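quick one: s-citryldethia Coenzyme A bound model?
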Amino acid sequence: MTEEIHKGLAGVVADHTAVSKVNPESNSLLYRGYPVQQLAAELAFEEVALLLWNGELPDAAQKEEFRAFERSHRALDPRVKSAIDLLPLDCHPMDVGRTAVSVLGANHPLSEDSSPEAELTKAKELFAAFPAVVAYDQRRRRQLQLVEPREDLDYSQNFLWMTFGEEAPEEVVDAFRVSMVLYAEHSFNASTFTARVVTSTLADLHSAVTAAIGALKGPLHGGANEAVMHTFEEIGINPAETREDAAARAKAWMEQALAEKRKVMGFGHRVYKSGDSRVPTMKQALDAMVDYYGRGELMGLYDGLEAAMGEAKNILPNLDYPAGPTYHLMGFDTEMFTPLFIAARITGWTAHIAEQRANNALIRPLSAYNGPEERHL
Ligand code: SDX
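yep, here:
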């Protein structure tokens, strides 16, 4: 019997979801029915998180309640800080994020309580707690002290405050907020599917999120935003260069990379074949940062790579492509980019964990054996 193999599960519809709809035909993305562009234009990230968890936009009272909750759960747990301090400064920040979530789970009094109420509480706490992990990790790598959160700032303002120790300008806060909204959710991507697989065994929420972080780390998935910046660095970033010169160098680099059959991160997508729905909105945020910091030459690199990839292979950028240089301009170290993706995707992962739990079936596909025929010792 020859079984039909769906390598990489490509094209397989594994289950229903009501969290988001990715439509490659119309290049659109809906969170609970709302176009992501509208959400990114009008809502705080905190409101988008509530939408993803609850299925509806929050009313004023729900917004206020979550505002107070989130602001009071931001401080870095001392046990998490101790665990981070044990990790080497040259380990990958994704390892730090993964460890931090694991430590939070091991210490959580509700860790084995999988009721919808307990799960939502844990999701909200994780959402509130994770920025301090990223911010502290970025600072310790620069030999800087922890900065305590501020309750007078919103999520994005406070994230940047804890990372850089100063209040970020409005333009930067807004670009950061937009990136969080765009990164929040994307149906059955590899990390979300990982979270659902772990949940399907009836394991706890922190185990599912920890596993999802492992899946997100790879450069074919979330690690691509970091890899994009490594490409820029490999080509060479020179703020004194003209945009045209940077574009020409980037084009030549891409032609060479494609001739060598290299995979260039930040381009292509398993689902979208004619453009990632989120790229135009993220590109606007990047343009705003380029204007704010006066770094037009970076767009030379950006445009040159995009044009050469388009001409040679007709492969378009994905969200990680504009997100990488945006985070670079904001001042994050390149290795910190994928942990920022974690901070955003905690919302989508935990919404999917709840959905999986509410209508669970163990996820366990079949395999077609192609090893040796039966043999004996
Ligand atoms: C994310 O799934 C999600 O929703 C993920 C995500 C989310 O929000 O959760 O959107 C986030 O993970 C974005 C993707 C980030 N990854 C990268 O940027 C890595 C680079 N991209 C590729 O490796 C690739 O496009 C994938 C992995 C994203 C998708 O790959 P597929 O669908 O398995 O397609 P493929 O690798 O089989 O590629 C098909 C063809 C191949 O050429 P041929 O062998 O047919 O000649 O396109 C080529 C590939 O070599 N190709 C690329 C390429 N992407 C595809 N060639 C060079 N560089 C690339 N980036």
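The chain has a mean pLDDT of 97.
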